[in-house]
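Project standup — Tuesday

K.O.: blocked on the structure for the chain from last sprint. Re-posting the sequence here as requested.
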Amino acid sequence: MRVLVVSAPLAGHLIPMLPLAEALWKAGHDVLVATGGDALSVDTGELPVIDVAREVSFRRIAARTMLTHPLDARAELAGRAGTRMVARMFGALNEELADGMVTVVEQWRPDAVIHEPLAVAAAVAAARHDVPAVLLENSLFDGASLLRATTDAPLLQRALRRHGLDEGLPEPRFVLTIAPPSVVGPRDGLPMRMIPRSGGAGAGIVPAWLRSPSDRPRILVSRSTVPGPGGDPMPAALAAADRVDAEIVLVRPEARLERKADGRVRTVGWVPLDEVLPVCAAVVHHGGAGTALGALAAGIPQLALPGPGDRRFNAELIARRGAGLTGKVTVQALTTLARDGELAAVAREVRSEMAAMPHPEERVADVAALD
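H.V.: unblocked you, prediction finished:
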């Protein structure tokens, strides 16, 4: 069976899709990954990759969209725009990707297309050539809702008309959902376990001291890999460090912060979080879905900043479940994070819930049945 796996040209969108792609590959199926942009830096192992976004700049599209819709842009930066801005941005992105995706499907002739919610161009190409499509969620957000919102974007509608799909896209054959139901609520679709991984080519070796538990609770502090506002909790964590009884570790701090650390905290370069989180008591991060899901899978409390895009949504879901906190990085928040037994217990509950979800290998048969 030939399976095309498609993500938007962003590393964080591709990484959660790789466990299923690798499971299909190991089961003997032909797999091709289609993406672009900084997702090309992700380590895909033996999986072949095709760049479908050579002439496309997501940063340019996002900036143009934000300038065109300033009120919604302001709401997006506050994390309160819902799907309005993301649908416009990714609708425009996928309109530019659609023709190339149609050509890839025409030439490679897959038996199934697996795509994430913001890779709608893949669904367009699959529908254009009557190939079954599977929607694979890659965040805490409801994938089907995100797919519908992006499909309804005016620019994406132009791509649909161009490819003879005036009646819209057919529903995916099925949806694979990776979010724990106790955090996001019940979802339609087939549950699949999220397998934490760090796919960046820049991830280094974890030093020996960071592989072992520390004498005091260890709080890892991580920032976003995507440039933009609201992505770095490190200055506040550094300012509070002297008044918190914990070992605070900054991951990839900016040079100016590393110089200011001056022995008060420990610092480390780009390390794979999936290897580090299990030996930490807690994590403070920018609110991104990848780190949020990684902390839930590791069973440790987290402090997620309520930032732009889906970051506020993620942070509020985690706090509502009781598996972490949201808000500012303060002495009190860090102390609670490191010492609150109830937060830790709920985080472990979610870890057990996620571990009980079917492994990606168990979903290979569902994909193969589409052939």
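K.O.: great, moving the ticket to review. The longest strand covers residues 30-35. Residues 208-355 form a domain with the Rossmann fold fold (CATH 3.40.50.2000).
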